[in-house]
Amino acid sequence: MKFNRVIGIVVKYILLTGGGVLLYILAAKYALAERGYFAVGGEVFFLLLPVLYYVTAMVIRDYLRDIKDRKKH
To answer: Distances in Å between the alpha carbon of 13 and those of 5, 9, 50, 59?
Structure first.
């Protein structure tokens, strides 16, 4: 794999991680205002944004590869 491609992938996942942390902070503040006390709930799933992106991308990639392979046969 070329160096530029690796850097692009690393930057993409850094941005996804940063976005997930930012969304978590915003959601935690909103949840605190709604609940009136601090607790961790569903907003914690924003921290899994990079993992969810990776899994979704792999599922879509495999699905498209399967469709392409069916057309060959």
So the answer is: 13, 6, 6, 17
How far apart, in whole angstroms, are the C-alpha atoms of residue 27 and residue 44?
Answer: 9
Question: Residue 17 is encoded by which pair of tokens?
Answer: 């991680």
pLDDT, one tens digit per residue, over 28-38 is 999 999 999 99
Contact 45, 67 (CB under 8 A): no
pTM of the entire predicted model: 0.80
Q: How sure is the predictor about 72, in pLDDT bands with cuts at 50, 70 and 90?
A: confident
